[in-house]
Amino acid sequence: MTERLIVIGGDAAGMSAAAAARRRDPELQIVAIERGAHTSYSACGIPYLVGGLFDDLDRLVSRSPEEFRQTGIDVRTRCEVTAIDLERRTVTVRDLDQQSDGEEGFDQLVYATGAVAVAPPVPGADACEPVRTLHQAERFRARLERAGSHHAVVIGASYVGLEMAEAMVLRGLDVVLVERSTQVMSTLDAEMAAHVQEAAEGVGIRVMLSTALEEVRHDSEGRARSVLTSEGELPADHVVLATGVKPATDLAEAAGLEVGPSGALRVDDRQRCPGVDGVFAAGDCVESRHRILERPVNVQLGTHANKQGRIAGVNATGGDIAFPGVIGTAVSKICHYEVARTGISECEATDAGIDVVSVTVKDRTRAGYYPGSGPIWVKLVAEPVTGRLLGGQIVGVEGAAKRIDVLAVAVWAGVRVGELELFDLSYAPPFSGVYDPLLVAARQTAKAVREAGP
Amino acid sequence: MTERLIVIGGDAAGMSAAAAARRRDPELQIVAIERGAHTSYSACGIPYLVGGLFDDLDRLVSRSPEEFRQTGIDVRTRCEVTAIDLERRTVTVRDLDQQSDGEEGFDQLVYATGAVAVAPPVPGADACEPVRTLHQAERFRARLERAGSHHAVVIGASYVGLEMAEAMVLRGLDVVLVERSTQVMSTLDAEMAAHVQEAAEGVGIRVMLSTALEEVRHDSEGRARSVLTSEGELPADHVVLATGVKPATDLAEAAGLEVGPSGALRVDDRQRCPGVDGVFAAGDCVESRHRILERPVNVQLGTHANKQGRIAGVNATGGDIAFPGVIGTAVSKICHYEVARTGISECEATDAGIDVVSVTVKDRTRAGYYPGSGPIWVKLVAEPVTGRLLGGQIVGVEGAAKRIDVLAVAVWAGVRVGELELFDLSYAPPFSGVYDPLLVAARQTAKAVREAGP
């Protein structure tokens, strides 16, 4: 008899799983259940849509439900799984438009529900609509165009908060970015984050650090009016909460699936939920092994969601691929700077009790005489004595950030900074000085490792 | 008694050696002898100067003779070493302005004479002045501005030939690029080189392949007038010969230093000339070990010259650093494409009798909806069975080329394409699709390796 795979969640992880399963098994029944109206869309692209870098919302959809259906995947949008029965191997599905419930049996299950926004626990915060789905983005964009709206406040200076702040500056709004901690972008060390803050301020964003959100005030029609913070009240026609998301595990937990120490679903390296045969999970809702920290972490990025989804789909259909883990690579464009990181930061090392040597260099992205040359800062974090590269951070103008992948491969492969400094990296005046900034940083770090001694 | 280091050649390798020696030993007598008027200039930047991307010739000088003199290095410009006596440990130095000869003793010697242009053996070719030094570049630029000059012919479609052709297009000239072989850029495989040719033609360069130079014709005042090729005569107010350079080894050979199979000076991994104590060589005149081909090669690039020079300077002053070899990394910007390569090409593998699996993918540099997204081609070359990455080539729009360093580290570290496809590389819409083109290429190559079987 034909087997049946049910996929819960129709975004990156879920649809990667469905597509991979389909490629491997043309006969398999595949049902993908998605709460929203879209499949496989790029949430990462929303700030650029909001900022007006492009206008057509559909360009964020990499494959539509109809395209998936043409490959024989039964995509059910506007449907929500409300319960999973692992004993009977069924899910309860609510049709959100018809308001009817049904039951669907499965042989294999891929759980890929993603993450949900967490509103800060202050009055009025939960009345702010998140900007995570395409529908929410569309509505948000329409609100921005409302006559007489001038002031926007973003709460949380994560990369998403910064991207949204920049997008609203591009829309001509006055933007204040409110951050509780003492720096923007907590994934960077403070001195690197300071350059990002400078870039944000350079385009006119007012950055308020060490400032707590106390209340979001709305008018009688539910429109945002102001934000009350520990540093006073700010006018706010628009409020964006970028205060974090949490893995959407409720449904899985109710079914008895296990949550790990990171707060996300526990999976093994085959994306299998431990102890339950034929049940897989992938994407923002699961935890992944951090190869440097050597512990499970929950990283919400499309790159992992796609890979893990594909692996779940392959393994659910009798294949055998392992997800090798993550090393915390991330990249973003914030105003005129590109920002990237991989491995562990100095701050993460301290928190984890790992002793490190770290060095920051300032250099230029291109040969000094070549047009467009500008500053780049590279920070490397290495293991004492061995000099093994454990992490890197990069901030700089155009051309800076993608260099992070060079460091990512070096971190992954266990390269020592003393080796890296003599690696045969490319050089031509449009792309770097004769010593690439990464080589300069590796050399300085190797020197610091030697000087620190054994 | 204070020791004395003589450095022959005042460009990248020589002055890196002098500077490194000075940093390690403040007492050492250091004499650097340079035939030209400049030290440490960026020959790689000459096409951009010619093209008018910047105007000030001095910007190509990274450190002037005067700056080196301030660190106590006795820089003698416009002086040429005409003989080396390894027995007596002396060099004969001719002062080119005074036309006088003198003798200088040394304890340690660094030989860093670089390379010299090779004119093709056809009538009139040796009357074309090369464009390799700053003075030559300055004269060439002045000639371009001469009234009534419209036609330029570049002989040789290497990266230098292409860069010079583009530079003259930027100056408003009609440019024909004549290449003897069947493709441009012989360092790339033919199908990758075809994209580069398309880019060159896109800016109006006429590319003539399989065309031999037969004669360069000059008028009675010595100005270029036309170029005679196997495909006919071409009008030519300017002729650039980019037909290759050879290591400047004559002086060394006359002194008894050994030349290796690549035609360049043989050195060990400490940059020592074998069999002669205290004599080092570095830069374009030496051969380096190719880590993939496992044989000596002569690669003329500033990046190696700088590293080898520094290593020679360190080792000449009692230090001990090894040059780890090269893997053939190179990058260039040709018209609207960036072009890069590392490791071995499919063609090189064939020539060397190495069996490989290779795959080319076409992708986009950024998310499709993000402004500036454009084509990128990635070709990977891997070892059968193991899938170890042996080389990569990249052609594409802005943002494409520096990805070569990711592959360079992977090649260097012996990463397999099946591992690489799941590496944690960065993703954000301004920088790539959710799967970076390198991951897409790695995945396709891993598949091809599996399909090829053991």
Short summary of the structure?
Chain A has 454 residues and is an alpha/beta fold. Chain A has helices at 12-24, 46-50, 65-69, 134-144, 159-170, 190-202, 250-254, 302-316, 346-351, 404-413, 417-420, 437-452, and strands at residues 4-8, 29-33, 73-76, 79-85, 90-95, 100-105, 108-111, 115-117, 151-155, 174-178, 206-208, 213-218, 224-229, 232-235, 238-241, 245-247, 279-281, 288-290, 295-297, 330-334, 337-343, 357-364, 375-382, 389-396.
How would you describe what is shown here?
Chain A has 454 residues and is α/β, with parallel strands linked by helices. Chain A has 3 domains: 4-36 and 78-116 and 245-316, FAD/NAD(P)-binding domain, CATH 3.50.50.60; 119-241, FAD/NAD(P)-binding domain (3-Layer(bba) Sandwich); 330-452, FAD/NAD(P)-binding domain. Chain A is built from 12 helices and 24 strands. Chain A has helices at residues 12-24, 46-50, 65-69, 134-144, 159-170, 190-202, 250-254, 302-316, 346-351, 404-413, 417-420, 437-452; strands spanning 4-8, 29-33, 73-76, 79-85, 90-95, 100-105, 108-111, 115-117, 151-155, 174-178, 206-208, 213-218, 224-229, 232-235, 238-241, 245-247, 279-281, 288-290, 295-297, 330-334, 337-343, 357-364, 375-382, 389-396. A 5-stranded parallel beta sheet of chain A has the order 3-2-1-7-17. Chain A has a 5-stranded antiparallel beta sheet with strand order 20-21-24-23-22, sandwiched between helices. A 4-stranded parallel beta sheet of chain A has the order 11-10-9-15. In chain A, β4 (79-85) and β5 (90-95) form a beta hairpin. In chain A, α1 runs parallel beside α8 (302-316). Chain A is globular and about 65 Å long. Chain A starts with a strand and ends with a helix. The model of chain A has no long low-confidence stretch (mean pLDDT 96).
